[in-house]
Amino acid sequence: MSAPRLEIDLDKIQHNARSLVGRLAGVGIAVTGVTKATLGSPAVAAAMVRGGVRGLGESRIENIEALRRGGVEVPTTLIRSPMVSQAARVVAGATASMGTELDAIGALSEAARARGLVHRILLMVELGDLREGILPGDLEPFVRRVLRLPGIALQGIGTNLACHSGVVPGHANMTELSDLATSIEADCGVRLEVVSGGNSANLAWALGAGDKGRVNDLRLGEAILLGRETLQREPVQGLLTDAFILVAEVIESKLKPSRAWGEIAQAAFGDLTLAPDRGELVRTILAVGRQDTDAAGLTPPIGIEILGASSDHLILGTGRRRLAVGSEVRFQVNYSALLRGMTSPFVAKVMRKRAAVVPA
Questions:
Q1: Is 200 left (phi over 0), alpha (psi -120 to 50) or beta?
Q2: Residue 80 lies inside a defined structural domain of this protein
Q3: Per-residue confidence (pLDDT) for residue 355, from 0 to 100
Q4: What UniProt keywords are attached to this protein's entry (predicted)?
Q5: Other beta carbons less than 10 A from residue 234's beta carbon
Q6: Which end of the chain is more exposed for a tag (fewer CB within 10 A), N or C?
Q7: Closest by alpha carbon to 79, among 112, 45, 34, 39?
């Protein structure tokens, strides 16, 4: 089988989705499954849908188009603010999109009118993380202008936390979001169908004690794919953390000094470090590198350590044990390693469902 490859267990993804959907339904929150880390994989999306997500979230229209070509027909939201240059593609492919700029929403309005469509908008509110969002004080006049745009239907409001600045979702900012939804409905005479509280970082708040207010949607990617919340990267109880495994092949395994010799300058990626002298160790090289994944996001088997990576090589320390050339090493991945691995054309994707291999 080709290497490097990501082995993807669709049953485990479905299990994680079903578990989260069921637990959050108990507090009145639906799940939008986010597939962006898998490059719009129809197989992964279908596993999430089988697990009960009410719709999908994607950050790029190209991935939404791939989902449509792959036969995925559930409602799909573009969760990155749309580019004006892609307005026609967005209204043609996405059910809804998240917006923060009137110029972009205006372009969507024109594109929707030209095609006789109605495009749904979820307005994103800035609540402190300083990525995308309309400031709370600007939201009411912004909503009034959006409501006047033909071809646009206001679906609701949402926010995003913990992605850029690490701001923790909790009672205060979720209450503020709920209060904004209520005030917008009262002041503007609209009904907001969706109040989207955020992402996998919201799980501790959502599954903890206390009223959830108006929040009725979370956009979950990492929790479904990797079974972890994103504030501390701790496993979520009842979820599986090994749905994705990166497998790479050994191309060299030799006993060598542990410390480099000669004059030392920057390495290929600007590193300027000199390892301590630990005597002779077996250094094993795998045919995978930074062009394929994030080496810092790999968890090797017990007894193996990652010593470094260049563009095309991952260097392991295997103690005194030589690994056979042509053998394989398996790694668990974090979100960064998964994202790069799914994006790399040099990493094969092998989907498995009930012991059967299915098309990627």
A1: alpha
A2: yes
A3: 65
A4: Isomerase, Pyridoxal phosphate
A5: 13
A6: N
A7: 34
Give the domain range for residue 205.
9-226
Q: What is the DSSP letter of 163?
A: S
Query: What pairs with residue 60 in β-bridges?
Result: none
146 in a domain, yes or no? Answer: yes
Is the domain of 217 the same as that of 276?
A: no
Instruction: Record the tokens describing residue 95, joined without a space.
Output: 């059910």
Decide if pLDDT at 57 tops 70.
yes
Q: According to DSSP H, which parts of 189-279 are helical?
A: 203-207, 222-226
Residues in a beta bridge with 348:
5
Query: Which of 176, 196, 226 corresponds to the end of one domain?
Result: 226
Going 103 to 104 to 107 to 109, the CA torsion angle's sign is negative
How many Å apart are CA 239 and CA 358, to the nearest integer?
A: 23
Q: Which of 6-20, 162-176, 234-248, 343-357 has the lowest mean pLDDT?
A: 343-357
Question: CATH code at 43?
Answer: 3.20.20.10
Taking 90 as the threshold, does the pLDDT of residue 205 lie above it? yes
Active site residues: 36
The confidence score (pLDDT) of residue 275 equals: 79
